């Protein structure tokens, strides 16, 4: 096993692209090291990206925020501007693992680990976040939901690294929120999760919406039909019931050790209602 | 030895205080040495290859490739642990469980092991061992396994305890029955009858420290073993028997222990580590991974229990009956039998009958877990008792008080009770402010009682008095829950000196005589008795030495508050001599001063508890939150009240996990789906409220200080108390443990459908 700590994206990409055998990218390591210790993987090359210039920073740009791939989730919680603009994304990132894990883990790692139950991903998808991908063929920006393609699988090609996650500048009267269901209070993995992102018009009517569900399909689901239910409403009781029904119907869950199909469908609807209500209040809706 | 163990009603100076534990600083600073913290020069890393199949015949094991790998020093299979059990069926099962012989009987069953120079080489070597399996049909569910159509796990087993000897083999290894009176007649006198079936899933003790040991087999045939265990003397006997050694040639030293709860009363890795060391000629360290701990060690039984209880309108129970099926793993056990004994032990019953069935399944060998078998039986019985009270229209506490066992009651499992604490715990609960606290929306309160036998057993203790007047106490009982602190208090009490003057250690198997392990809540009960006895023997010598120093008759010397005092008018001008003053002179008065004790601590005295629990249920998701929890339990006498409270809280915390989320989940392939703490959900700190405790002290007449065991009873009532609380909060009777959110939500939905 070879461990390297490149100082530039070019070097990191080159090393990855030129490697034969298995390789892994190390940022927080909260997934990678656990899997290595468990004996599930033994990569031939580990590329630690923490020393690469700019990757450990959150930058505010005219377009919004650029969150470097090596920024730990705990740091997201320390950014007042980010918390104010995207409270749902930050609360999702701050649910991963435990306090100790949050000191290491990153939202980029969470995305690339490609677990359908990843906490930050539904919030990022609802937020319309984009990923900046750097590889041997250059730089491209893609929607985050196109990164995971199935449990443990991503669309990234050999040598490609996500450099940063981009979040837009906020329109007025906007709010987002994230909720997950776990049987415990913390240190657990989502059985079902939901992220909602809303913008209201000046009368408090939902103008645009994005609804994402986690742990109910092979990848996080962006439920367009659920967004349509919310748009044009003030989240009255009937709208919320319709939202729950649409979300439950959109799920393609499995029975497993963490929950049943029935349970996941019902709770997806319940969480969607609750999380939409929170997002609506954060957007200033009454 | 003429030691009088009877309760004396003395007033205490040290006992009942709460000093800091002697092992505390090392534990909180990380200096304490647990099983995996022992190391030896030249030690090898041992690792075990485990069956991925639930049930398979082992056709062939080829270890040749692994043996050729550089750095591998030994590879063993069952052939290296030949059967030396000489017809001892229980030990043969232990041997087969340590290393599968002809069949792998569960996912995780050990089939081979290696010792190599490092962990990586050992891991690689495991991959090079080729095992040819012939897959057999498997069964993991207790009810399925009990059916005639189930795959047979051991075709040499015929159900014991039936009136007629069966002609066909069965997965049901034994039937046992307890009770008295005539239940049929009793039910005839009942105005109300509750009849229900319950299930509980399998749980693990969940100790944070995995099994770990270092074995060092010398070429002269002697061996050393450092290990985390609840009983190093028992480990010595078992390992010596399995390896064909004389017990005296194996010296076992127990490490600090990061939780055992019954799970460290059985050998798993230790005989394997010794066999590897014997073959490699070097020390071998073997530490289980968490995955191995779940798949191959522990767990408790999964159960299926039918209960029927009848009562008159006035609240008197007329008859009680239960049929209990407990899984044993693939080897015969007596788990249902214990469940059948404890099920109705809290009550005074004229007509009672319990029947237990031991059931083999393709799961790990069932091990003891804190009051083994009692929590599941209590869950079924106390749920039915609650429902019956409701049916009659009586308060659940009053209903239980009316039927509670008392001194003189013939217990449901046979013996007649002496003074017991079930009535007092119920009275304490009735007047506890918790019972009157208001409840909010979607919140429910439940309460339940629990019983455990407790045990005493063989105990050996040395008390040595140093020349500086300090006292060292060497005990053979492993300190699992703070017993070194408690025993130091007892020694200080008896000798009349300060707690700080006493230092207690757990001695190895070559330093003391045989000592039973820390199980059956026996640690403080039995070892405090032996400590009192040893201290009294030392006092006798202290008096003799004082008499010598004064040159008076020993009968004129009494021991009071840590001093020898010359009694009688003719000695009026002699000042008293402290323990230290006598110790300083001991070299001139006959040499070192010590007291020894070896005894069988009889009369442990049964133990009872009653718990109260408030739960909030989210009716939309089935999520639960424990809002408040209160434990009331009889301790006889709390030697160190903080650790007694710790035992009460610990049992309740484990019970809460068991009741709400913990369970072994098997796939259709018979493989364990959740061998880790992520998906085997023990509670985290924030899942639990502060657990309130109330210690009752109803002295045990068979102990000088009135002490009873306290370690286990606290896990008996929680499953039932929480089930009663959830049932009250959700408005539907919960009959399947754990009450995980999917199960609660499904029950609520079914109830909604039904009431439409």
Structural account:
The complex is a heterodimer of chains A (286) and B (756). Chain A is α+β, with helices and mostly antiparallel strands and 286 residues long. Chain A folds into 2 domains: 2-48 and 57-168, Uridine Diphospho-n-acetylenolpyruvylglucosamine Reductase, domain 3; 174-282, CO dehydrogenase flavoprotein, C-terminal domain (Enolase-like, domain 1). Chain A contains 11 helices and 14 strands. Chain A has a 5-stranded antiparallel beta sheet with strand order 4-5-10-6-7. In chain A, helix 5 (87-93) runs antiparallel to helix 8. Chain B is α+β, with helices and mostly antiparallel strands and 756 residues long. Among the domains of chain B are: 24-32 and 456-601, Aldehyde oxidase/xanthine dehydrogenase, molybdopterin binding domain (Aldehyde Oxidoreductase, domain 4, 2-Layer Sandwich), CATH 3.30.365; 431-448 and 605-756, Aldehyde oxidase/xanthine dehydrogenase, molybdopterin binding domain (Aldehyde Oxidoreductase, domain 4, 2-Layer Sandwich). Chain B contains 20 helices and 27 strands. In chain B, the strands form 6 sheets. Chain B has a 7-stranded mixed beta sheet, sandwiched between helices. The interface between A and B is medium-sized, with 21 and 25 residues.
Write the layout of secondary structure elements.
The complex is a heterodimer of chains A (286) and B (756).
Chain A: E1 2-4, H1 9-18, E2 23-26, H2 32-37, E3 45-48, E4 58-61, E5 64-68, H3 73-78, H4 80-85, H5 87-93, H6 99-102, H7 107-112, H8 120-127, E6 130-135, E7 138-143, E8 148-150, E9 153-154, E10 161-168, E11 174-181, E12 192-200, E13 206-214, E14 221-222, H9 224-230, H10 237-250, H11 261-282
Parallel strand pairs in A: 1-3, 2-3
Antiparallel strand pairs in A: 4-5, 5-10, 6-7, 6-10, 8-9, 11-12, 12-13, 13-14
Helix pairs in contact in A: 5-8, 9-10, 10-11
Chain B: H1 24-29, E1 44-50, E2 56-62, H2 64-68, E3 72-76, H3 89-98, E4 103-104, E5 110-116, H4 119-128, E6 130-135, H5 142-146, E7 172-180, H6 183-188, E8 192-200, E9 212-217, E10 223-227, H7 232-243, E11 250-254, H8 269-280, E12 284-287, H9 290-296, E13 303-311, E14 317-327, H10 335-342, E15 352-359, H11 374-392, H12 396-403, H13 422-430, E16 443-452, E17 457-465, E18 471-475, H14 483-495, E19 502-506, H15 523-550, E20 557-560, E21 563-566, E22 577-578, H16 579-584, H17 586-589, E23 593-601, E24 607-617, E25 624-634, H18 641-660, E26 691-696, H19 718-730, E27 736-737, H20 741-755
Helix pairs in contact in B: 7-8, 10-11, 11-19, 12-13, 14-15, 18-19
